[in-house]
Amino acid sequence: MPALVPLLDAGHVHLSGGDRAGCDAVVAALLLRSVGRADPGAVRLIGYDPEHLGGGLAGFAPLGTAGLLTFVGPGGLGPLLDDLVEQIRRINETVLAGEYASLRELAAATGRRPEPWRVAVLLGGDELNRHERGQLDRVVRAGVACGVHLVVRGVPLPEDPAVTRVVAETSGAQIGGPSGLPVRLDPPPPATLVTETCREIAARVNAGPPPTPFSDLLPPPELMWREDSASGLTAPIGEGPQGRPVRLTLGDYPPHALIGGPSGTGKTNLIFAWIGALAARYSPAELEFYLLDFKEGVSFARFAKGRRDPSWLPHMRLVGINVNTDREFGLALLRFLAEELRRRADAAKKHEVTKLAELRAVDPTGHWPRIVAVVDEFQMLLAGRDAVAREAADLLEDLARRGRSQGIHLVLASQDVRGIEALWGRPALVAQFTLRIALPKALRILAERNDAAQSLPRWHAVVNAESGMVEGNEIARIPSASDWETWSGLQNRLWRMRPPDAAPARLFDGDAIPRLADAPDFRALEAPADGSAPRSPVALLGEIIDVQSRSAALRLPRAPGRNLAVLGTRVDEACAVLDAAARSLARQHPPGTARFSIACLDPDADPMARALYDDLADDAAWYDEETVGELMSETADGLTGPGSPHYLLLFAVDAAAGALAARAGRRTGLEHLRRILHDGPERRTHVLAWWRGVARMRADLGGPAARTDQIGAWVALDAHGGELGSSLYPGTGGPDWYPRPWRGLFFDRAVHRTGQVIIPYGPS
């Protein structure tokens, strides 16, 4: 029958006798069975082998790569015993804390073991001094309850019921002392088995422990949406080393959070876990999210309504993805939050209060949820030295400083150390982010001398609400929350609980091209009920890069200069702008009350121009290079009275310069065009034309020195900012505009002080 020796959570083992090989075999077998049967990383070995300098445990050396085996050199027994006693004291005070008699009892009651087993292997040495003997006695008496065990040969142990004595002589072995149970010792385990087992355990530990279940962060279903956010937002983010939840708070203090960690360390997963824990506790009336992701990817799109999953997170008001090239969208979010901050501050002033909790108390019928704005890879907003970066930094600083009192909280995340460095030039801004969350190997998130994140395993984070100072460190084990199935279960439950008037979040995808038919502003257009022409029709040109999903609109009243120039060489985008403008104008006119003259002078633009002509049916007329001169002449000659609305849609009009100039007569076709641009708008005749360059437009208007007042609005595509200066744009030097695919800069003299970035609507 097997002879069993109680060790883990049970006692200590003392070996003696003349059969040294037998003792070594017992040590190897005990340790291999202990580390091999326990969960990887649950057993940590400390070796003291002064005679052979660790050679007696050489087969277990691979455990050292995972921090599961440490060796103490000659003369180090005293410090080793001191450390074991300190571990026992700490576990009794902070882990057991008077609630449990032992770690074994705690594990049986909670299902978790917050501390590893620590096995000190003492293989000989000099005679112990008085202090060392006292410390060894303490470990023998109190160690078992705290998972601290001794396996000893060559060092005497005091008499204690927890000590099992094995005597190995060449004539036989006994358990329980010289007169104990006779046993036949097993042969030593094969060296290859020891090494391979230890390598496998070390590899699994180095890969990191598996995450805890996401459900651990969630309250029971019957307690969801029961929390009140008046004084702040609090939710667990994971469990600490003792198995207790680690909670994050956003409120008056700490007001904002900074998250950092290299790629692959779980930043996205942590954001999912935090959002889920908050969304399960606070209803949409208590909490709203705005989420912006500057890196490429669509993982955050699942918070919004999608084709794969029609549900959405009811708390989410905005999701921006793939905005790495659309810094203007990040700026639009900050402007939106700044306006909301102003609105809340005005309401607080009206009610003579200063904080959100006070405002909610005196205005219980108002809608004052706490707002959490998460900006991932936020450093993209601050990159460069242009107007966007300057305004974004100023808005961030103002929101961080004043947002806390009005319930607006910022969570900035970055995987690149440069993202954090972008903040250090603004100490007043950094000081507001007192909650720091550092993932494994994160740099510059915590205080300068706080390197706790460098040794973190996977699925863990350092949570620090004291601006990164060492004394504020808490280690949290983060659940797996970002996989589709895990998240969808929670989102669908919360979606079914949504209020009747809940609307899905606005989803902005920087890689997607919006459609005119889906635009709210387009759907809202309609012709006057009395059948008359609208007094000030609106041409929609594209989608503004902002929070509200608005359309860029050009009003065309009877006023000088109400014409549009589209500038650039990108055929598809230029055609899309003119197409959207024409279709939105047609939607506002009853059939037969407006004329649309379409002139296409570039073969590449012909398919889109033809599709527009076919859809406008009886209200449209078609012109080409041979007949465009007639269009100019007839239109110019017809400018004698207000007439009916007439829109000239000229595709690549600069291509007609030769044909227009070749027309013999008192006036050339270009002169007719200039007269239409100048006099037409006041007579309800407007030109919406595409020129394939700024210089070509100036040539058609009369040369480099020609005035451009008759062009009241323009959309620049691949025309650079420097080309748009002088008479087209206020000030000197032109706008800060760097062309990029499927983006345009819209400027209306009558409305704008600066240009507005838009996304042309895709082909209808």
From TrEMBL:
Q: Which residues form the FtsK domain?
A: 243-448
The record, for Pfam families, names: FtsK_SpoIIIE
The GO molecular function terms of this record are: ATP binding; DNA binding
**InterPro entries, alphabetically?**
FtsK/SpoIIIE/SftA, FtsK_dom, P-loop_NTPase
SUPFAM superfamilies (UniProt xref)? P-loop containing nucleoside triphosphate hydrolases
Assigned keywords, A-Z: ATP-binding, Cell cycle, Cell division, Nucleotide-binding
Q: Which residues cross the membrane?
A: none
| CDD domains assigned to the protein according to its UniProt record, in alphabetical order | TrwB_TraG_TraD_VirD4
Q: Which GO terms describe its biological process?
A: cell division
Binding-site residues, ATP: 261-268
The UniProt entry, under PANTHER family, shows: DNA TRANSLOCASE FTSK, SPORULATION PROTEIN RELATED
Supply the name of the protein.
Cell division protein FtsK
Species this chain originates from = Micromonospora acroterricola
